[in-house]
């Protein structure tokens, strides 16, 4: 179905989906590793690219392709690629555009493993890297070298919620022929469309908002044009980080309610942020929707909503953090984010416990920092849960 001129919600439901010849109402799961050729000529034509069709599921599969087309439509991209995980998307993007002697400039507070794999594995093959605060545009300009091939942005970044001006960052990068990849996991295309601001590739952990139900792991890359797409597709096929058809089916089902889920979650997030902002046990809170958020205007410029992710600092540091974790009841104590259930975690004792203290503090991950991903429960219940747990500190 051609959904080009339809609104975002209509695209969520219909883009990419198809009815098969048996009349399925939703896109069926083609749980098959390989596809039958009609005859020798058909097989030859498929391999030669003379005919469109399917050969082998790592290369392409109708259920996976339906999801890829939906995601591309949502991001206003040329085409999409679905992968086994968000990290498969990250490593595929690195492999596609970086080689020995090339250099990447990236957001310092980027998702930990996106930085980890660069420092531990890509460095082994001679890729150079610079991690900076990309919310400072001058720092981006200064970090770019003659061998810089990629600017990698995450906005909002995790877990400091710092934003980077995508449009201005792309202008700087493109002046130097540097490709821009944006990890859009924290916003989802409902709230932010990086390709519209000039990015070349959008990356997702589908595990989070897009699938939204905390029941699968998945990733995606969406390319702005054919050239970028072909490079990414070829890399994914060689790397082997493809998605599975059943996984694709679940993501395609989960994403249909993206806007409904996020509308509710961000409405609640705003109320919770306002509640926490004046709470005596809270040192500070970062939520893009608050007037007090230092990049509130940038959030309004490039995001159509403020999302449901927030970070706050407890008075009382590390101990206060673990006490809160041990006393919440409705908020689920777990990493990850963007699901229908509210998740809470304490980076200093959990996700970032292995980072040397000085590096952790430099990245803005303080001892009492709590990350909160608001779900779609009743907001009164969530506030009551926080209230009773904060009392224990
Ligand atoms: C979770 C996450 C990833 C990695 O995705 P997986 O699906 O866990 O492999 C990448 N970037 C961000 C911002 C994430 O939150």
- Spans of at least 5 consecutive residues whose pLDDT stays below 50 are none
- Could you give the distance between the termini? 55 Å
**Major beta-sheet overview:** 7 strands, mixed
Total of domains: 2
Topology as a string of helices (H) and strands (E): HHHEHEHEHEHEHEEHHHEHEHEEHEH
Whole-angstrom Rg: 21 Å
| Percentage of residues assigned to helices | 25-40%
Mean pLDDT score: 96
- According to CATH, the homologous superfamily of the largest domain is Type I PLP-dependent aspartate aminotransferase-like (Major domain)
Describe this structure in words.
With 393 residues, the chain is of the alpha/beta class. The protein has two domains: 8-30 and 61-255, Aspartate Aminotransferase, domain 2, CATH 3.40.640; 258-390, Aspartate Aminotransferase, domain 1 (Alpha-Beta Complex), CATH 3.90.1150. Helix content is 39%, strand content 15%. The chain contains 15 helices and twelve strands. Strand 2 (103-107), helix 5 and strand 3 form a beta-alpha-beta unit. The protein is globular and about 75 Å long. The mean pLDDT is 96. The structure holds pyridoxal-5'-phosphate.
Q: What descriptors fit this protein?
A:
15 helices; globular; binds pyridoxal-5'-phosphate; Aspartate Aminotransferase, domain 2; seven-stranded mixed beta sheet; 393 residues
Helices, strands, pairings?
Elements: H1 8-14, H2 40-48, H3 62-74, E1 79-83, H4 86-97, E2 103-107, H5 112-122, E3 128-132, H6 137-143, E4 148-154, H7 166-175, E5 179-183, H8 188-191, E6 201-205, E7 219-223, H9 226-239, H10 245-255, H11 258-277, E8 282-286, H12 296-302, E9 309-314, H13 317-327, E10 332-333, E11 343-345, H14 357-362, E12 369-373, H15 379-391
Helix pairs in contact: 3-10, 4-5, 4-9, 13-15
The structure holds pyridoxal-5'-phosphate (PLP).
């Amino acid at each position: 179905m051609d959904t080009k001129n339809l609104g975002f919600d209509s695209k969520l439901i219909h883009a990419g989906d198809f009815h098969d010849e048996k009349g399925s109402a939703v896109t069926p799961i083609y749980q098959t590793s390989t596809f039958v050729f009609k005859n020798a000529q058909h097989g030859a034509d498929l391999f030669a690219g003379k005919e469109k069709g399917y050969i082998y599921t790592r290369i392409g599969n109708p259920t996976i392709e339906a999801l890829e087309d939906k995601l591309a439509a949502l991001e206003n991209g040329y085409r999409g690629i679905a992968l086994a995980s968000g990290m498969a998307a990250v490593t595929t993007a690195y492999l596609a555009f970086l080689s020995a002697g090339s250099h990447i400039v990236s957001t310092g507070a980027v998702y930990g493993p996106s930085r980890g794999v660069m420092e531990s594995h890509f460095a082994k093959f001679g890729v150079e890297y610079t991690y900076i605060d990309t919310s400072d545009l001058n720092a981006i300009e200064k970090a770019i070298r003659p061998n810089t091939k990629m600017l990698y942005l995450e906005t909002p970044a995790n877990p400091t919620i710092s934003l980077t001006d995508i449009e201005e960052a792309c202008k700087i990068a493109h002046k130097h022929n540097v490709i821009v990849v944006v990890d859009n996991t924290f916003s989802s295309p409902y709230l932010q469309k990086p390709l519209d601001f000039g990015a070349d590739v959008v990356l997702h952990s589908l595990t989070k908002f897009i699938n939204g139900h905390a029941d699968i792991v998945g990733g995606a890359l969406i390319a702005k044009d054919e050239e970028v797409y072909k490079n990414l597709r070829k890399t994914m096929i060689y790397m082997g980080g493809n998605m599975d058809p059943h996984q694709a089916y679940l993501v395609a089902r989960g994403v249909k309610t993206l806007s409904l889920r996020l509308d509710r979650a961000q409405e609640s997030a705003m109320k919770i942020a306002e509640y926490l902002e004046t709470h005596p046990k809270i040192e500070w809170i970062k939520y893009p929707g608050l007037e007090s958020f230092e990049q509130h205007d940038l959030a309004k410029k490039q995001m159509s909503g403020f999302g449901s992710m927030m970070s706050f600092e407890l008075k009382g540091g590390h101990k206060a953090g673990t006490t809160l974790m041990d006393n919440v009841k409705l908020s689920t104590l777990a990493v990850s984010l963007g699901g229908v259930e509210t998740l809470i975690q304490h980076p200093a004792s959990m996700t970032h416990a292995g980072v040397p203290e000085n590096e952790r503090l430099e990245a803005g991950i303080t001892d009492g920092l709590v990350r909160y991903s608001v779900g779609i429960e009743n907001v009164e219940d969530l506030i009551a849960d926080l209230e009773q747990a904060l009392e224990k500190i």
